[in-house]
Design brief:
This protein is α/β, with parallel strands linked by helices and 334 residues long. It has 13 helices and seven strands.
Length: 334
């Protein structure tokens, strides 16, 4: 029996990468427009906004609905931060080609590190005729593609520069993120161009990421059987996608090595009563869930790295076949 496919969707900053890439993206523009304000001033203004919003919060959320409301309240400060960046015109004249090449150079110079094993996980999904996507609240698809291409080339066979990891077609990875226009005004593009309200036109919050993920999955599989939708993320901005996916996986390091974003997500899940189990303990019954119909999960999964995800029971033939049987897939329509 052929195995059913997986649609793997990954967060970028902190999930695919080991740290945020926003300062490096900003620096691409700043090198071209050196008289613009520094990233530190932009970052500090955002931190001040966040602290002010946090201090006005009466109590910490104790239910999922309260947590999601808090995450949505961050939309205002995210929108103000983008307005500040646009006002600097730091991205004036920055082209897609410049962003793509700068991303590749940053990976080759090890200014950006993609987490070990990501390319083998992606290759395994693609070899099983699955799909892979990236959804990010950051900038930009060209930067993300450039990072992945350079990373895959770097881990390719020794002495064969330019050879990609077997099974990984980086160009086929569907990347959804906010974009840089590169115009004389230095504007950032609107992801949803038809939006009537500007702060609803970009991917800013957890709810926006869910909207993108849902659109992607519905569009990609409109004429065929629904695959197993697996989302991997590391922060509270990933919370809605983690909860709506068929399998939501929190990427966690060892306690001493956890990032601030990973700790925030863990703390939020503990507060609202959502349990996490190690992915290595997954059983067949854990895949018997509705397909992305609502937030129906009281359980998420965790793995310390991409190697653990790739080697987990999620990829076993038994669990695949169980999911296939439950959702009416057949060899004829795969």
């Amino acid at each position: 029996m052929a195995l059913p496919s997986i649609h793997l969707i990954l967060d970028f900053d902190g999930t695919l990468t080991t740290a945020t890439t926003l300062p490096l993206i900003y620096d691409i523009g700043h090198r071209l427009n050196p008289l613009c304000p520094s990233w530190q001033s932009i970052s500090q203004a955002y931190i001040d906004d966040y602290k002010n919003l946090k201090s006005a919060q009466m109590i910490k959320p104790s239910t999922l609905s309260q947590e999601l409301s808090w995450l949505e309240s961050l939309r205002a400060i995210e929108h103000r931060s983008i307005a500040r960046v646009e006002a600097t015109k730091v991205f004036r004249g920055v082209t897609k080609e410049l962003i793509h090449s700068a991303a590749g150079k940053a990976v080759k110079d090890r200014e950006i590190e993609l987490r070990p094993g990501w390319e083998k996980l992606v290759g395994k999904v693609m070899e099983g005729h699955g799909k892979v996507g990236v959804v990010s609240v950051g900038w930009s698809p060209d930067f993300i593609q450039g990072c992945m291409e350079a990373s895959v080339q770097r881990v390719g066979p020794a002495g064969q520069d330019g050879n990609f990891e077997k099974g990984v077609d980086v160009a086929s990875i569907d990347v959804r993120a906010n974009n840089v226009l590169g115009s004389d005004e230095g504007k950032l593009d609107r992801y949803w161009r038809a939006a009537s309200v500007d702060d609803r036109s970009r991917i800013l919050t957890a709810a926006d990421k869910l909207r993108v993920m849902t659109d992607v999955v519905d569009t990609e599989h409109i004429d065929g059987p629904r695959p197993l939708v697996v989302y991997v993320g590391d922060s509270t901005t990933d919370l809605e996608c983690l909860l709506h996916a068929d399998v939501g996986i929190c990427l966690d390091g060892e306690p001493a090595a956890m990032t601030g974003e990973q700790r925030d997500l863990e703390e939020a899940l503990n507060r609202v009563g959502i349990d996490r189990r190690w992915l290595g303990d997954m059983k067949e019954a854990d895949l018997e869930v509705p397909l992305m119909q609502s937030i129906n999960h009281s359980l998420l999964w965790w793995a310390k790295d991409f190697h653990e995800i790739r080697g987990s029971p999620l990829f076993s033939a038994t669990n695949y076949c169980k999911y296939r049987e439950k959702n009416g897939s057949s060899e004829d329509n795969m």
